[in-house]
Amino acid sequence: MAYDIDPELAAALAALPKTPNGALLDLSDIPACRERVAAAEAWLPAPDPGPRVKAETLSLPRPDGTRLDVLMFHPGDTGRVRPALLYFHAGGQVLGSAHDRTARAYAADLALRLDVVLAAVDYRLAPETPAPGAAEDGHLAYTYLTAHAAAHGIDPDRVGLAGASGGGAVATAAALMVRDRGERSPRLLSLHYPMLDDRNETRSSREITGLGVWDRRENLYAWAAVLGDRVGAPDVHPYCAPGRATDLAGLPDTFVAVGQFDVFRDEDLDFARRLIDAGVPVDLHVYAHAFHSWDVFAPRSALSRTLEQTWHDYLRRHLHG
Fold first, then answer.
1. Residue 214 near residue 33 (C-beta atoms within 8 A)
2. 47 domain-assigned
3. What is the pTM of this model?
């Protein structure tokens, strides 16, 4: 398939380092892939927001006695009550950490620009923790912060969930858990090109095979890590693969953004349509000539700036409005 990529994005794509198989990532060996990502992370610039942001790490106990880190970023005066955004990082549910330098810088910058308390959840990764472990971490972080909102300068009625790529799966599954367990509803659910469906049967899932960012090959490896031999089974629970959910009523207002040449495009469009059918207000944005995570790899491009402005405006309206 020929990809008519935006010129700015095409230049960024051409500059990315590739593994011998022609992809940015090789998930056939996840531990080795993590080592390569960590080495690259050390070379990336990560500006320090300085004293404008107060950072702290919460260590929340899980039922099994282990601890979940939630990195909190408070902009400006910590004595003023603010909305909060729980953020779940990208990485196909197998890579990344909220503790990464670039992730911390991103979270601090977002807290400042939106004037919110940004809570970055360091959820557990697969295959060490298969689904729904990451979603349970998201649920724990959300319910803790809404229950203890006053102690952290948070308005409990203005807490949103947001995630990108694999983090979008975690955020969505956590939102389903909150709904199903009858807890306080999030203010919003924000999803950048979310990874939702383990079945990999859509047209885009089959077509996007040669771009080298996050193609069908990488997605199959990631879902195999997340679900093991449950991949594609008829009884996979929506907490493990949110695209499997048949009842979407009662979810919060949702923002979905995806690129034209993203392996997740069609499952994201289907999910957005089914949300609308269920009566959920949806802001859906499909970016022509864009590939997966284009805003990360070409942050100064016109398409990335457009997404950023649209997304930030959405968050401000829903969290502060």
1. no
2. yes
3. 0.97
pLDDT tens track for 76-134: 877 899 999 999 999 999 999 999 999 999 999 999 999 999 999 999 999 999 999 99
**Residue numbers of the domain that contains 53:** 7-320
The tens digit of pLDDT for each residue in 151-169 reads 999 999 999 999 999 999 9
Name every residue whose Cβ is closer than 8 Å to that of residue 317 and which is 6 or more positions away in sequence: none
Q: Backbone phi, then psi, for 284, in 5-degree steps? A: -110, 130
Residue 147 near residue 214, CB atoms below 8 Å: no
Classify 300 as helix, strand or coil: coil
Distance CA 109, CA 75 (A): 9
Q: What's the rounded Cα separation, in Å, for the pair 117 and 78?
A: 9
Q: Give the length of the chain.
A: 321
Q: How many domains does the chain have?
A: 1
Cβ neighbourhood burial of 208 (10 Å; 0-12, 13-18, 19+): buried
CATH of the domain at 303: 3.40.50.1820
